[in-house]
Task: inverse folding
């Protein structure tokens, strides 16, 4: 579960396409529902907020150094707002995964989104904390 924005929740799935000692590459899909966080880019209703659904499609680039993994996550994001209109955007993120034990890790992250085309403002910066349990990779 992820809370990208206040008042939002979501789920994601990930496929690790490449896993080596120094580098990992994965593809992820994340679906997020945002309750009151979308607003028009401009116009008379600029302050009107509404619900929306986000589809994030980042590529995860992991660089492994000892007990740390530095993760970059460029990709695309699509928003379907409450009025049924689509907005296409870009996203980027950076995180550091700290493996505390062989079965537990913490991953603070910052993500950024910006609209490219469409009626909804996606100018967001979000902070998050991932808690990862079981199935952690071993790089020994």
Result:
């Amino acid at each position: 579960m992820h809370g990208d924005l206040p008042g939002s929740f979501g789920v994601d799935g990930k496929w690790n396409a490449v896993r080596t000692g120094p580098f990992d590459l994965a593809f992820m899909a994340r679906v997020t529902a945002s309750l009151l966080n979308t607003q028009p880019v401009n116009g008379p209703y600029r302050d009107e907020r509404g619900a929306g659904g986000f589809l994030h499609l980042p590529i995860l680039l992991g660089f492994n150094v000892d007990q740390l993994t530095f993760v970059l996550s460029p990709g695309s994001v699509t928003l379907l707002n409450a009025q049924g209109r689509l907005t296409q955007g870009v996203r980027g993120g950076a995180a550091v995964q700290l493996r505390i034990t062989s079965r537990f890790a913490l991953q603070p992250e910052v993500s950024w989104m910006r609209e490219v085309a469409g009626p909804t403002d996606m100018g967001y910066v979000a902070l998050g904390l991932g808690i990862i349990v079981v199935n952690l990779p071993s790089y020994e």
In short: The mean pLDDT is 82. The chain is about 0% helix and 70% strand.
